[in-house]
Structures are given as structure tokens and as C-alpha cells.
Amino acid sequence: MPILFITLSLSSCNEKAQTSEGVLMEDHSTFQDYKLPDSLSSERMLFVMAVKENMGDSIWPAFKQHIGPFIYFNGDKSEVFFPSSQVLDKLDDHNRYSEDYVLTQRTDSIPFHFEVMISFNEEDSARHYYDHPVQQVLSVEETEQFIPSVQSTEMWSTMVIHEMFHQFQYVNPGYGTYAKNQIGNLPYDIRDLMEMSHGNEAFLSAVQKENEFLLQAISEKDETKMRAHLEDYLQSRKERIKQFFGQNDTLETVENYYILQEGSARYAEYQSMRVLNRFSKNKEDHDIAEDPMFKDFSEFEELDLTHPDFSFLTYAGAPDYHYALGFNTLRILDILGIEYKSTLLGRPDIPLHEYIARYLNTKS
Predict the structure, then answer these.
(1) DSSP character string of 274-320
(2) What is the helix (H) or strand (E) element at residue 240, kind and residue range?
(3) Is the confidence at residue 363, as pLDDT, over 80?
(4) What span, in angstroms and rounded, lies between the C-alpha atoms of 301 and 279?
(5) Which helix (H) or strand (E) holds 212?
């Protein structure tokens, strides 16, 4: 059974590259309750938690309260925030500051980290991420070395929120079970679809046609015309699946899963950007005074999805077209007032486009 890596696409920002542990859903009344050392990394972590808290429960129920193991790679050290007992048991040696923070030597030699790591393979049973989602990220400075467009703590924080939402996905029992027992056992994975989008211009063109119908529906004010765009989207998608997947239901299942997975994480990422936009109106209340990578919210004073700095969120390009299809579908569901957040992660077997199809059927 393969390891599942949930990574932020390298096309983001124009360049970007059920566990039984109760700690994963621990409810802190406020992020200020955390016992962390007085350090820049801690300040950055508290900033991320403040962004998440200000997203509120209305963005996604229970995400505001979510907390899980978080490894911050900083030079030759790994700073482990909110460690679970499983993570602590697997560390060779560490210095404990509090129940919320330990310091250890860098936990691996991989240069780039910005992912949630989890494995369902019994061969990895000795690993800290076996059947246990662990978020791993580089410091802001190291991230910029790999992704030059990430030039601020603020932009870095949106990437962290994206990955934090992936961790949140896995601690939802229905989602974690589906990933382990269904997706993890399939003969195909997202790499097959990424390769197809890279190597088959007709496939990518068909995907982008679907995405354009979604964008047209989002911008349409007339309900009848919006409905027509959505019907065109569903028909176009049906034709693409038939042409390129044929009778291979497995490939469609894989695509549906990753459209839901990455689309909802991008949705959370975008919602964090909206928080940063609000923070920019009261900068003095939310800054990190001693952070040289903090840019005073300058990138988020205006948040326009058609601007080149943010258009990556909605553009269905290769190889990560599934991010945009999912994100734009969730935007549609919000516009239509379709309730989905209470069931989406508990029933990941229901693809996002099905919510649109059901809506159209009930309104016909």
C-alpha cells in the first residue's frame, strides 16, 4: 500500500512548488493558551493559529479548533509543535519545553518539506507518520529558497493553512477510512492524472473547458444562465470522462478524490487570504515585530482572484488542474447556498460535481 503525500503544488503562488490520538482534535479556547518558547518560530506559529481562529467556524465547522502534530524544519533542527504521543515515541532524542513544544535534530535529510505526511503501509509502522497525519513545513527563509515567489511570512502562512486543512481532513473518521481502505488500495494515484494532464493536450483542453464553465457560472448573476453554465459543465465533464477514462472507473474515482481533497484545502487557503486582507486594515494589531520576513500585509491589501498574484487559485493548469476544479466547485456551492460542509469530509465518496447535479435535479 503506498505512502500518501499531500503536498502543496509547485504551481501555487505562480511558482509553488483516524487516528485515535485525541490530541489531533484538542480544543483550545484560545491560541494564546499554548506554552511555547519565546522565539521567532513560535511567533510565526501563533500568527498562523490567529489566522485560523479568525477564519471562524463558519468557514468550516471544527477547523477552528483543530490542532495536530506540526514539524517546523529550521536549519539542522526540527521544532515540533503540538506533538502527539506517537510522534514523541518515534523521536530518537528531544528536548521538551512543554506539552506543546519539543526540539530535536532534523528528523530527515530531505531538502524540501511542505506537506502532510501519512503512510498506511505496515512497513512504515516505526515512523512517526504511520496511520497518523503529521504536518511538515520549512521555515519561511528556507521556503523562499525553493519557491522564490514566497517572500513573506504572510504568504507562507496561507500555505501552512492549506496543509493544516489536509491534516484536518484525515482526522475526520469517514475521510481517513476512505483514504486508507479505498484510495490507498487502488492501482492508480494522482501521479497518473498529473502525467495525463502534462502529456495530453486534448485532455488538458477538456479540463480547462470544464473549468471555464464553472468560472462563467460564478460570475453570472442571472440564475437561468448560471444554471445553463452548470449543465454545460456537467455534460462536458461527462464527455471527457468517457473519452479519456473509458470504462476505467478507478481513474475517475482517483480524480474525484483529489478534486475534493485539494479543492477543499485550496478553499481553506483562500479563506486565510481573506483573513489577511482584513488584517491589513488593522496592521498594528496583527504584526510580528521582530520577523524580517513579515511584509506588513502588503501582498493582501487587495485580494482579487483575477490579479496575476492570485489567479493561480482558479486556473486549471497542468499538472494540478484538480486544485482549481475543486476550489471553483466549492465557490459555486457557496453561491447556490448548498449545504455541504457537514457531510463533505465524512462522505468523500460523494464527488463534488454530484452536489451540483443534485441541486439542478431538485430545481428542475
Answers:
(1) HHHHHHGGGGGGT--TT-TT--TTGGGSS--TTSTTTGGGT---SS-
(2) helix 223-240
(3) no
(4) 9
(5) helix 201-219
**pLDDT of the residue at 57:** 83
- Kindly give the pairing relationship between strand 101-105 and strand 77-81: antiparallel
Dist CA 353 CA 199 (whole Å) = 25
Question: What integer is the mean pLDDT of 68-72?
Answer: 98
Contact 317, 293 (CB under 8 A): no
Average pLDDT over residues 61-88: 96
* 32-36, 145-149, 278-282, 316-320: the lowest-pLDDT one: 32-36
What phi-psi label fits residue 80: left (phi over 0), alpha (psi between -120 and 50 degrees) or beta?
beta
User: Which pLDDT score is estimated for 33?
Assistant: 83
Which strands, in side-by-side order, build the sheet including 114-119?
3-7, 114-119, 134-138, 70-74, 77-81, 101-105, 95-98
pLDDT in tens, 280-333: 998 888 889 899 999 999 999 999 999 999 999 999 999 999 999 999 999 999
* DSSP category for residue 92: S
pTM exceeds cut of 0.90: yes
CA nearest 142: which of 47, 71, 210? 71
What whole-number distance in Å separates Cα of residue 255 and Cα of residue 201? 17
CA angle centred on 74, ends 72 and 80, rounded to 5°: 35
Q: Which three cell numbers stand for residue 341?
A: 460542509
